[in-house]
């Protein structure tokens, strides 16, 4: 019979090491790791002879929802203390790179949303793939004290949504516009610019940042039945409001010096997960 973990009566109740807290902490690690399953299902769809971008995006959405809740849970349940043998940040970074970068860019290449045939289309994909590797490996990529990301936070899953719409609006020039956007954001990924870290945003920006993300997700779901060739123009424009707001808010906070820990960073945040 397994002996219960020791309890130090001198410790505050919320800090005591109990079996229940240990199980909860490791369950958060399992939740973080489960994202890779949904990403594998997205990759399976891409391996089909005629893949559906809609189904790929649906699996990416599920993985993103998991990623959006595991970080707050990890901080709330003190995962670094109660499950120290597993590096939640390592799991999170691996899943994030595959889900935010590799699968979305593979989708862009697979659907011919960049110039050139399959043999040459990868040349447009290579720069963002490599740039995001440097972004994820950068020790200063997440400034949690100020609630910021350094460089474009590799939201290639969001950009991929709009790259798929470009042919409907620009015709044959659509893939070229998409290729240019890929190169632009690849450069921005390794540039010394800063973007809001949504999970660590707080008053007065927490509600618009997180609420806007939820509203954007609802608009995306509304777009998917028409995606990619029949999405109403007004719906596309409405969906662009939040990405534009996010970029402008990040620029504003950086320029006005309102990105300090007193405004943006959540207090006592632990780097346990996404």
Describe the structure.
- The protein has 274 residues and is mainly alpha-helical.
- It contains 10 helices and 3 strands, in the order αααααββαααβαα.
- It has a 3-stranded antiparallel beta sheet with strand order 1-2-3.
- Strand 1 (142-143) and strand 2 (148-150) form a beta hairpin.
- Helix 1 packs parallel to helix 4 (88-110), helix 2 (53-76) packs antiparallel against helix 4 and helix 5 (118-137) packs parallel to helix 8.
- 35% of the residues are buried.
- The model is unreliable at 1-13 and 259-271 (pLDDT under 50).
List its traits:
single chain, 274 residues, mainly alpha, 3-stranded antiparallel sheet, 62% helix, 3% strand, globular
Helical coverage, percent range = 55-70%
Low-confidence stretches: 1-13, 259-271
Per DSSP, the total helix count is: 10
Q: What is the CA-atom radius of gyration, in angstroms?
A: 20 Å
* Content of β-strand: under 5%
Question: Span from first to last CA?
Answer: 36 Å
Q: For the report, how would you describe the main beta sheet? A: 3 strands, antiparallel
* Series of H and E elements: HHHHHEEHHHEHH
> Based on DSSP secondary structure assignment, what is the total number of beta strands?
3
Could you report the average pLDDT, rounded to the nearest whole number? 87
Kindly report the spatial arrangement of strands forming the biggest sheet.
Answer: 1-2-3
Gross morphology is globular
Secondary structural class: mainly alpha
């Amino acid at each position: 019979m397994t002996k219960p973990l020791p309890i130090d009566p001198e410790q505050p109740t919320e800090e005591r090491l109990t079996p229940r807290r240990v199980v909860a902490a490791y369950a958060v690690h399992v939740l973080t790791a489960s994202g890779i399953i949904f990403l594998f299902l997205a990759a399976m769809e891409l391996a089909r002879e005629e893949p559906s971008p809609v189904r790929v995006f649906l699996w990416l959405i599920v993985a993103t929802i998991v990623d959006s809740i595991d970080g707050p849970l990890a901080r709330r349940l003190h995962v670094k203390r109660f499950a120290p043998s597993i590096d939640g940040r390592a799991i999170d970074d691996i899943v994030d790179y595959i889900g935010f970068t590799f699968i979305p860019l593979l989708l862009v290449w697979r659907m011919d949303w960049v110039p050139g045939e399959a043999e040459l289309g990868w040349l447009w994909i290579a720069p963002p793939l490599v740039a995001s590797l440097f972004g994820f490996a950068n020790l200063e990529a997440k400034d949690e004290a100020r609630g910021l990301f350094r460089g474009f936070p590799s939201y290639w899953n969001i950009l991929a949504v709009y790259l798929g719409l470009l042919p409907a609006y620009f015709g044959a020039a659509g893939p070229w516009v998409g290729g240019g956007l890929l190169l632009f954001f690849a450069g921005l990924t390794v540039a010394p610019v800063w973007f809001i870290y949504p999970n660590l945003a707080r008053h007065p920006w927490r509600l618009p940042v997180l609420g806007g993300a939820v509203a954007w997700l609802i608009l995306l779901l509304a777009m998917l039945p028409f995606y990619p060739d029949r999405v109403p123009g007004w719906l596309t424009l409405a969906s662009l409001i939040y990405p534009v707001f996010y970029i402008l808010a990040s620029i504003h906070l950086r320029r006005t010096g309102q990105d300090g820990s007193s405004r943006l960073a959540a207090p006592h945040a632990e780097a346990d997960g996404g």
